[in-house]
Structures are given as C-alpha cells and as structure tokens.
C-alpha cells in the first residue's frame, strides 16, 4: 500500500539550511520513498525551551510504501546520521523530522501519534505546511483554516536556503505513455521540438546527468551547462558537480531564473520535487520506452498548444505545467 505523508523538518545547530537540504535528499533517496513537495525555509524562534538558537523549518510531502512506524524509523535514522543526539525534550538539535499527518490514518502509540498532537498549535509547522498543502483537511478543517485560527504568536519569517528558491524548471519530450527514452537514447528528435527546446533554454542554465552530457558530445551553446555526476566528469564547457549540495551552492551563488533540468530519467526524478514549472512536449506515438517521466501529478496544466511536426508528421502538444494542484497553494495570512 502507498501512503501520502506530510512531515516537518527543523534544525537550529550548525549549518541549518544545508542540514535540511541533506535531509530532504536522503528522504527522497530512501527505498520505497518519493519526495513530492517541498516548502520554502522559514526561520522561527524556539518553541517550548526558549534559551536556544532560532530554528530553520520546512515542510514536505512524501509518497511511500513504508508502514508508518517504518517511516518513523527511517526519519529517526536520518536525524541520527545528521548528528542528532536526544539530550532533552524540545532542546537544540542538528535535525528534527516529525511525522505530521497521513490522511485516513490515526495512531496513538508510545512510538507515534498521528496526526501529530501539537501540530495545530505551532505556527512554525502550519506556515510551511500551508505553503504546500493549504487545502489539506486535518481534524475537520483545512490547514489554511487552522493557521488562521492558530494562537501561536511566534514570528515565522521566510529565509533563503530552500531548493525551491532557485525556480527550477524541467523540459522534456515524452511519448503517449510518458516515455522518455529507450536503451539510453531519446525516443524522438523532432525539428519543431528541438527548436522549442532551444528557444526556451537559450541564454539560461541547463542541468543534466553524465549520460545526457555524453550524448550531446559538446556543451549546448548560449547556455551554462552543468552536469551532475558522482564521477566528477571534467569536460570543456561543462561545470561538473559531484553532489547535489555542490550543485545547490553553485545555483545559490550565481542564480539564474532561466534554469532547466534537461535529463536523463534519473536526473528528472532527482530534481522534479524542487521544480516550479514543467515544459513537456507530448508526442502522439508509442516509442517503446524503457525510461519514464513521473511526478507530474503534483503539477497543474496551465496551457497546451497542439502541432504537427512537418518533417515527420507526428502529432504533438507543447504543454506547460505549474507547481500546484487540488488543495495546494501559496497561502499567506
């Protein structure tokens, strides 16, 4: 069975923002777990025990095959790997991951309480959660309604450091079954789609994996080319990153509003939770793909333009998606 789960993340020791980014990456990389939505980062005063540094908090939506207690164990393991030691209740910590809510699941055990018993009293939980799921119903009201009614007067201030600050987009071409490629190659090379790709990405930044870099042979002209590969591939015209954190640092230091993730399949999977927009060319054909695009159910279709590729006769649609959907929204008080 697959569960939809909402979690809260917080840290107030060390490099707080980096710790949150690492926790999100490890959650997404855990077997049987998919990161779906991520909020911005918010700095908040400590709650409960006041003589400690301020926290940076965030919220995330996960999709997982883990049972709730197994998910709790995974979160606690990530906390430990990031240096958390449980010395005192509500004390300072390098990482805190709380399970907030799993729709249609109620638990009251020694290990886990769902929904989280204090979440509706804490602005530092509700503000990030409202950013990704304002319409989510908990205890008979939406998160938006709970936030409006919340009596917590602690200040919750937006702060930099979230991957969502980068305004990433994906651009891809898929067949009628969401297929991306077969045997390491693209399914289609349609002149009209290639012209669209060039127009959209020109003058911006493109992010790719090693195989996509190798298939290109050379950097795309007129664009900053970044390749993410643990092997640290060094090629002229490409900026190589060995880790996701290294890539985030490059994008934070030199931001570009025109930043696109261009493939391949694993790179799309890794970055899609952090993307705000998606440009997907849909081709009305079955390419017999072995790699597929997934995760667009977290996006809403903004517009679609039909066309026929003059060179091949393929019918296709140029579709523009934006982050959001039923129950989501950038809610502000």
CATH homologous superfamily descriptor of the largest domain: 7,8-Dihydro-6-hydroxymethylpterin-pyrophosphokinase HPPK
Number of helices: 8
The geometry reads as globular
The helix/strand series, from N terminus to C terminus, equals: EHEEEHEEEHEEHEEEEHEHEEHEHEEEE
Work out the helicity level: 10-25%
**Mean pLDDT, as a whole number?**
91
Structural class: alpha+beta
Overview in brief:
This protein is 24% helix and 33% strand. With 333 residues, it is an alpha+beta fold.
Distinctive features:
333 residues; 21 strands; 24% helix; 6-stranded antiparallel sheet; alpha+beta; Alpha-Beta Plaits; 2 domains; 8-stranded mixed sheet; Dihydrofolate Reductase, subunit A; disordered C terminus
